[in-house]
Design brief:
heterotrimer; A alpha+beta (329); B alpha+beta (174); C alpha+beta (749); B: 174 residues; alpha+beta; Ubiquitin-like (UB roll); DNA polymerase, domain 1; 31% helix; C: 749 residues; Aldehyde Oxidoreductase, domain 3; Aldehyde Oxidoreductase, domain 4; 7-stranded mixed sheet; globular; binds flavin-adenine dinucleotide; binds iron/sulfur cluster; binds FE2/S2 (inorganic) cluster
């Protein structure tokens, strides 16, 4: 526990915000604060300057390229979830948002901040245990520790921390684009390249330069997403991160074959997990429970488990099969 | 586009880390106090403004005891810096009863015995009133889901639901 | 008989709670208040090698840093004895920061005091502490080989073994046997207010605002540890944000707050952070229980063997007793109950709501369900036929009600016509099942004489006082009711004052005993004062009641009238004013019957649950719960219902969500916040129904009040587990019954 002395700056413009952070090595953006203040208090992050970006004009939602939506980075989760164009075009994304955190947190949390939220791994959060993500090279306590909730996909010998976001699962399925402005100008990062697997550098979670500000998230037009869904399975009925969550958008053609499929998983991966293998296994094939099961098997073929989180593989496969079967019927 | 370094904040734009004057608008009144930037809205209320009705249950965003409204929306004061609240209107449990007259939600909580130790209660009430305003309390399942950010360890939940239903239905009728 | 006792009166402290004006112990404003923060050990076993304070002292705002090097030695370390006994009641027979040895993760190794909470937290993080770590042993898995048979439990108050008849012989001869082993994860109380103490010295006297379940226990313990007279320690507690056992005993931080205030020469507030609340006020210990039942084909129990293995601290033989109910709720001539302990690197475990019997009963009541299936009998009938009219010593129950609770519950729940075949009901992806369990919780008369004072002023207003206080159970309200009826005044003119050791003694309201103890003392004080006032009137030549026999005077609304002619009478106020008496007062006392009273003492109940189990994913959701209880006289049904509801939902949490374990590498609790240690939220709450069976009890005190704080939880988890079996055909041998436990067929055992 700490509350280190900090300097505070309320940015009046994007340029000001980017300049303020990029010119101070120990600085960070402060959006809703639901990750940043929590981790500051836990001594997991140690900024000395916080640059408040809440006044920036980034709370908008607007249409782009025939049917896509651009979401300002400072739009709040609760507002995005209930925005009519999100509810109509991407219902699964709306559901993912509403099933995350609590109403109070959703009123605070920004979409940009959500992309940058940190893992809930308790060894990371305790500020003390060996943890490669928090302190590169110190080891990973979770590998041989309590790891019931840890990831089974995309892990490495260095880190098995689960990515906690719900909405990011929807966004990877939708091939969203992260738009940024940084000290070196603007950038657009396809979302799957935004979330980095731990590999040998678990402390590096995304490709943003220091001081690079997410300004918007573009969600492309995708007709099949109009029937998308998000189911979140968890121990308690609400106010908990996912044990396993499934985002799906599927179209089955008249012959009963899967014509289009977007499938992504939460709770099981070190990053919001796009189920590419399952998608490939199914597209063009009959939409049957057997094929769904085979696709789920393919997705988890390389899963790496521990005795405590082994059940997640079965759990997730069953969740996938159920979800796709329900969508089909 | 490259960022012009000249737009870096003037030294005057940086505040802290020592205490500096801050103006907070709480329950319609303006308070000028000296605070360090690291102070949360929750601690500012409790330790600097002596408004201890807003409770600290976790300081981690996991319980809802610290729920207040910012510009009419319910938020968690433990994860909000007081400095970020300048220019915004904060409402706390202390401002809910008007002229000594309990708000219908407060009265309903008493009538339905919707608390035991009372420590979660201000947060529950701030959430419950906001919930009705948000309009997401149509079914029992809606109420339960949208109140789930407020933990009651005494498990007064069934009674809280009854209190909320009563106020909702009275509102609808009137 | 009485106008307000038994009525569903609203809580008298409701307005303070709904407006946020009630002051809890961390909300006391004192000039010059400083903020303390404990620094907990980052190893679970070993030694503190060095503490470098340089950076912390330079951080600004720091008034003082205490470590083992400068912390005063305690004068007298009392042994652990439950606070109900009315003696010093340390949570563990150990006080930290007396030397450099670390026994458990989070054990206080330093305390920082600063001018703000933030400054204290920052300085604490800057303390550079190095350890010489040892290998921690803190779990059953690691300590099993070192387990030993405990001699006594509960600080020596209870024998650890309870044996009668010939269990082995009876089991060998039994026509039917059931044998089951369970593993239970540890539980943490997590009241919404973490423990906090504000300490202020005035010369040699210290005042503590302490979030305790019993001010007297704090006073006795702190005085003993500091070596100062009781008269120099005052403890004040007006509001407590829940306890559930975590505030029943007095943990080191309370005395550390007093020490810190003396150290810095200022008042100090010492609050535990939420993570610290997992390492500072005990827990329900990790445990394993094994039960073996023997019965005849007719369903009569012939043998019960019930054993528990659990982890305790290096200093104390603590185990929550598991066999206090299983030894007596069902009649059985051959019984063995015992407790084995592993001394490991944890702090001393402690009372946690429905201590002991919630898990002891889980074991017994799920075993009874297995037996019912073995025999093909209805589980309700099996219980009723085995429930005896006397306890295990042959003493009649002070009051019973068990069978009525089961029958009433069955009616309310709709038990009749249930197809007992498991796995037959499915709705969508969910398997549906229903289950039942019996409930009992001991009434423990280990406390000393209880006192209360009633005082009436010459305007007719009344103050009733006793020391032990409110922490959510509603004593402020129910004692106002008891006092008003006892004295014969309206509740509006009466104020109940409590939560201050300067007031007459009552013991910590723990073990569900608060209402019994306090109502007895308050009732006696109020009726004594009433009798004194009546005696005064009939002896007063100027009173219209002069010359009447006291027994022919009755009182209502503060007015004494003749029972023969209601027009003859006068008010208390008139009597006092005429006699120029500014007030009159009486002390009431109540001597508990004692542990050896020749009566069986249990509060009974019955629990029913309906669950939906996701057939593929193993997730269990409770749909309905019904609980019926026989807690003697119900002082206030509204509050009693709330307490029982709370207990039942605690049972739901215990069944499905709540479990903590120690990381075997570090010895640290794996979960240390409310985001991961899952307690039920609004969305987890089923349809829930509570009812009472009224039983008269003239043994447990003048009003016949048994407790409602614990029994609501007993049996709730068992009813849920029995329902999960009915739904799935799989027995659950682990709590909590998380998805993987259910998916994998119930766990070991
Ligand atoms: C108790 C609890 C439960 C939760 N449950 C869920 C859940 O179920 N599902 C879920 O998805 N999430 C959940 N969350 C996480 C929550 O959604 C995130 O904390 C939130 O989205 C972060 O957004 P923020 O605006 O508060 O970010 P902040 O906390 O302000 O910032 C987070 C990080 O992002 C950086 N940052 C912020 N904005 C930008 C930007 N525009 N560009 C670049 N960097 C930026 C900050 O510097 C910081 O490092 C939960 C959080 C809590 C506390
Ligand atoms: S899993 Fe990752 S975050 Fe967790 S301890 Fe290992 S390295 Fe750290
Ligand atoms: S104190 Fe803010 S959520 Fe718990
Ligand atoms: S009333 Fe005690 S936590 Fe809700």
């Amino acid at each position: 526990m700490t509350m280190r002395p900090i300097t505070f700056f309320r940015a009046g413009s994007i340029d000001e915000a980017v300049a303020a952070v990029s010119s101070h090595p120990d600085s960070a953006f402060l959006a809703g604060g639901t990750t940043e203040i929590d981790l500051l208090r836990l001594n997991v992050v140690q900024p000395t300057l916080l640059v408040d970006v809440n006044d920036l004009p980034l709370t908008y939602l607007e249409d782009v390229d025939d049917g896509g939506v651009r979401i300002g980075a400072m739009a709040r989760m609760s507002d995005v979830a209930r925005a009519p164009r999100i509810v109509e075009r991407y219902p699964g994304m709306s559901q993912a948002l509403l099933l995350g955190a609590s109403e109070q947190l959703r009123n605070m949390a920004s979409m940009g901040g959500n992309m940058c939220q940190r893992t809930r791994c308790s060894y990371f959060r305790d500020g003390q245990s060996p943890c490669n993500k928090r302190e590169p090279g110190s080891g990973c306590s979770a590998l041989t520790g309590i790891n019931r909730g840890h990831a089974v996909l995309g892990t490495s010998e260095q880190c098995i921390a689960t990515h906690p976001s719900d909405v990011a699962v929807a966004l990877v399925a939708l091939d969203a684009m992260i738009r940024t402005i940084g000290p070196d100008g603007t950038n657009a990062i396809p979302i799957e390249r935004f979330f980095l697997r731990p590999a040998d550098t678990p402390s590096i979670e995304h490709p943003l330069a220091h001081g690079e500000l997410i300004v918007a998230i573009d969600v492309p037009a995708l007709p099949v997403a109009r029937t998308s869904r998000y189911v979140k399975h968890r121990d308690r009925a609400s106010y908990e991160f996912a044990l396993v969550s499934v985002f799906s958008a599927m179209r089955v053609d008249d012959a009963g074959n899967v014509a289009e499929l977007r499938l992504a998983l939460g709770g099981v991966g070190t990053v919001p997990w796009r189920a590419h293998r399952a998608e490939e296994a199914l597209i063009g094939r009959p939409a049957t429970p057997e094929n769904f099961a085979a696709a789920a098997d393919a997705e988890f073929a390389d899963a790496r488990t521990t005795p405590m989180n082994e059940f997640m593989v079965t759990f997730a496969k069953r969740a996938i099969v159920r979800e796709l079967s329900e969508v089909t019927s | 586009m490259a960022i012009n370094q000249s737009t870096a904040p003037a030294e005057t734009g940086l505040r802290g880390p020592r205490g500096e004057p801050v103006t907070l608008d709480v329950n319609g009144a303006t308070y000028a106090i000296e605070l360090e930037p690291r102070v949360s809205l929750l601690d500012a209320l409790r330790d600097h403004l002596d408004m201890t009705g807003t409770k600290k249950g976790c300081d981690q965003g996991t319980c809802g005891a610290c729920t207040v409204w910012m510009d009419g929306r319910r938020v968690l004061s433990c994860l909000t810096l007081a400095y970020s609240c300048e220019g915004h209107q904060i409402a706390t449990i202390e401002g809910i009863a008007q002229d000594g007259e309990l708000h219908p939600m407060q009265q309903a909580f008493i009538d339905h015995d919707a608390f035991q130790c009372g420590y979660c209660t201000p947060g529950q009430i701030m959430s419950a009133i906001a919930l009705l305003r948000e309009g997401n309390a149509t079914t029992d399942a809606d109420i339960a889901e949208h109140m789930s950010g407020n933990i009651c360890r005494c498990q007064a939940y069934p009674n809280i639901h009854a209190a909320i239903r009563e106020v909702r239905d009275a509102d609808d009728g009137g | 008989m009485s106008p307000v006792v038994g009525k569903p009166v609203n809580r008298v402290d409701g307005p303070d709670k709904v407006t946020g004006t009630g002051r809890y112990c961390g909300e006391i404003v004192l000039p010059g208040l400083a903020y303390g923060l404990i620094v907990g050990a980052a190893v679970a076993n070993g030694r503190v090698v060095s503490i470098d304070e340089t950076a912390a002292r330079a951080a600004g705002g720091v008034f003082g840093i205490m470590t083992h090097r400068n912390t005063p030695k305690v004068a007298n370390q009392p042994r652990l004895i439950p606070s109900l006994a009315g003696q010093p009641a340390p949570g563990e027979s150990f006080f930290p920061m007396q030397d450099d040895v670390v026994h458990y993760w989070g054990q206080p190794v330093a305390l920082v005091v600063a001018d703000s909470e933030e400054a204290a937290a920052h300085a604490a993080a800057l303390l550079d502490i190095t350890y010489e770590p040892g290998v921690p042993v803190a779990t059953i898995a690691d300590g099993r080989a070192s387990a030993t048979q405990a001699k006594t439990l509960f600080g020596g108050l209870m024998p650890a073994t309870d044996e009668r008849g010939d269990v082995e012989g009876a089991l060998a001869a039994a026509e039917v046997t059931v044998d089951a082993t369970y593993h239970f994860a540890a539980n943490h109380h997590n009241p919404l207010e973490t423990s906090v103490t504000t300490a202020q010295w005035d010369g040699d006297r210290v005042t503590l605002w302490d979030s305790t379940m019993g001010v007297r226990a704090s006073q006795l313990t702190v005085a003993s540890l500091l070596g100062i007279p009781l008269s120099d320690v005052r403890v004040i507690t007006h509001f407590v944000g829940g306890g559930f056992g975590s505030k029943a005993m007095v943990w080191p931080h309370v005395t550390l707050a007093a020490m810190a205030a003396r150290h810095v020469g200022r008042p100090v507030r010492l609050a535990l952070t939420r993570p610290q609340s997992f390492t500072s006020n005990g827990h329900r210990e990790e445990q394993e229980q094994r039960i073996t039942l023997g019965a005849g084909r007719d369903g009569r129990l012939t043998a019960i063997r019930h054993r528990k293995l659990s982890v305790t601290s290096p200093f104390d033989d603590w185990a929550e007793p598991a066999t206090g109910v299983s030894t007596q709720i069902y009649g059985c001539d051959n019984y063995l109950g015992d407790h084995q302990l592993i001394h490991g690197n944890t702090m001393t475990p402690t009372f946690t709501r429905a201590p002991g019997e919630s898990l002891g009963s889980f074991t017994l009541e799920t075993a009874m369900d297995r037996l019912a299936y073995e025999l093909g009998m209805d589980p309700i009938e099996l219980r009723i036929m085995n429930h005896p009219p006397v306890d295990n010593h042959g003493n009649p129950w002070s009051s019973d009600g068990m069978a009525d609770c089961l029958r009433r519950g069955a009616d309310l729940f709709g038990w009749a016509g249930r197809d007992p075949t498991p796995g037959t009901r499915q709705e969508g992806n969910d398997l549906i099942g229903t289950g039942v369990a019996g409930a009992g919780y001991p009434v423990a008369f280990m406390m000393p004489v209880q006192h209360a004072r009633a005082r009436i002023f010459h305007d007719g207003s009344v103050v009733i006082q006793t020391s032990a206080q409110e922490f959510g159970i509603g004593v402020t309200t129910s004692m106002s009711q008891v006092g008003a009826d006892g004295l014969g005044v309206d509740m509006d003119v009466l104020r109940f004052e409590a939560g201050d050791t300067d007031l007459p003694n009552t013991t910590s309201a723990v073990g569900s005993m608060g209402a019994t103890m306090q109502s007895s003392a308050v009732h006696n004080a109020a009726t004594t004062l009433r009798n004194d006032l009546i005696a005064h009137a009939v002896n007063d030549g100027k009173s219209p009641l002069h010359g009447l026999s006291p027994s022919s005077v009755k009182v209502a609304d503060g007015r004494m009238t003749s029972t023969l002619d209601p027009s003859i009478g006068e008010s208390y106020a008139d009597l006092l004013q005429r006699n120029r008496l500014l007030d009159m007062e009486a002390l009431g006392s109540w001597t508990p019957p004692g542990m050896d009273t020749p009566h069986g003492l249990l509060t009974f109940g019955a629990q029913f649950a309906e669950v939906a189990v996701d057939k593929d994913l193993g997730l269990v959701r409770v749909r309905r719960m019904t609980g019926v209880f026989a807690p003697g006289r119900v002082l206030n049904p509204k509050l009693a219902r709330s307490q029982l509801l709370g207990g039942m939902l605690w049972g739901l949490g215990q069944a499905l969500l709540e479990g903590n374990q120690i990381d075997r590498q570090s010895g640290r609790w794996a979960l240390n916040n409310l985001g991961e240690y899952l307690v039920p939220v609004h969305a987890d709450i089923p349809d829930i129904q509570v009812d009472f069976v009224e039983v008269e009890d003239d043994v447990v005190g003048p009003l016949g009040v048994k407790g409602v704080g614990e029994v609501g939880q007993v049996g709730a988890a068992a009813a849920i587990a029995n329902a999960v079996f009915h739904a799935t055909g799989r027995r659950m041998n682990e709590l909590p019954m998380t998805a993987e436990v259910v998916m994998n067929g119930g766990g070991p055992g």
